[in-house]
Every structure is written in C-alpha cells, then in structure tokens.
Design a protein that fits this description.
Helices cover 27% and strands 23% of the residues. By secondary structure, the chain is of the alpha+beta class. The chain has a single domain, classed as Cathepsin B, Chain A. Strands 1, 3, 4, 5 and 6 form a five-stranded antiparallel sheet that branches. It is globular. This is Peptidase_C39 like family protein.
C-alpha cells in the first residue's frame, strides 16, 4: 500500500471537517500548521454551509503559497489521481456523502439524514483506500483516526468532488 504519514486532528466542531481535513493534508508538507480556526477562516467555513470545495482549495493555496491543488468532479479519475499524488507524498482532501440506507465508512453508525463530510485520502492499494477522518472518535463515527475502506465503497461515497494535484493532471 502506498501511504503518506499525516498528523490526525479531530474536528473542533460538527462543521469543521473541511478545515480539519485540510490541516491533515497540510501535515504532510513542511509548513507551519495553522489552527483549525484559522483554516476555517481561510476556507470560508460557516456553521450554515460547512466548507465548499473551493473553500478547501483556497485555504490550502493560502497556506502553501501556491495553487497546488485543483478541484475535480466525481466523473474524473479519483483512483488514478490519488495513486499519483500519494506516490509523491501528497494526500488528497475528498468530500464524501453518506445517505440513510446507503454505503458508509466502516465504524460509522447508520444515518437518519445526509452527512456531507471531508476526509483526507492518505493511502491506496489495489483494492482499498486509507482514510484519515477528522470525525473519528465523535459519536457515531469510526473510533480509529485512520481506517481502510474498500475502493468500490469509497467511490460510491464520493458523489461531488475532491482535490487533486494540478501538476499531475
């Protein structure tokens, strides 16, 4: 398995998954790590809307000082993008959507409503992906900060977007 070591941090609020996932991604770089609160400001995170794909991208660019990540859609090739990025030590922020009765990450309790959530993709093998999840340890989520998920299940959860390395596209 190709794996990028990162520093996990639990999201500080129910809607800070975007800034927390961005912080996990940034921990793989040689940069000072801003607080989740500072990243929430840079990502334009709000209690009402959470963090958009462009917000996560903007926050990463402001901390890294360059436009390293680009927004991709679910029709793009997440597995190929992830394999290339992880091979050079760069994790990817990925947005997942968990619906009632639908697939969910291992260790997650069944949902009564839709959960729109950011995670960091930190590892890949032929059949599984390794996720660093900022919600881990919170009620109803996997207790382990990093866990494996079958690739087909993860791809079903990625309904909207992820960020990939622009230089590798």
């Amino acid at each position: 398995m190709s794996y990028v070591p990162t520093r996990w941090q639990q999201q500080a609020t129910g809607y800070f998954c975007g800034p927390a996932a961005a912080r996990i991604v940034l921990s793989a770089f040689d940069v000072p790590l801003p607080s989740q609160e500072k990243l929430a400001e840079l990502c334009d995170t709000s209690a009402e809307d959470g963090t958009s794909r462009y917000g996560v991208q903007r926050g990463l660019h402001q901390v890294l000082g360059n436009p390293l990540y680009t927004v991709r859609s679910t029709g793009d090739d997440l597995l190929a993008d992830a394999a290339k990025a992880l091979a050079i030590g760069r994790p990817l922020p990925v947005n997942i959507v968990v619906r009632p009765g639908g697939p969910r990450p291992p260790g997650w309790a069944p949902r009564t409503g839709i959960t729109d959530h950011w995670v960091a993709l930190v590892g890949i093998s032929a059949s599984r992906l390794l996720i660093c999840d900022p919600a881990s340890g919170r009620e109803g989520f996997n207790p382990r900060p990093v866990y494996a998920i079958p690739a087909p299940t993860f791809l079903e959860l990625v309904e909207k977007t992820y960020l990939a390395l622009a230089s590798l596209l």
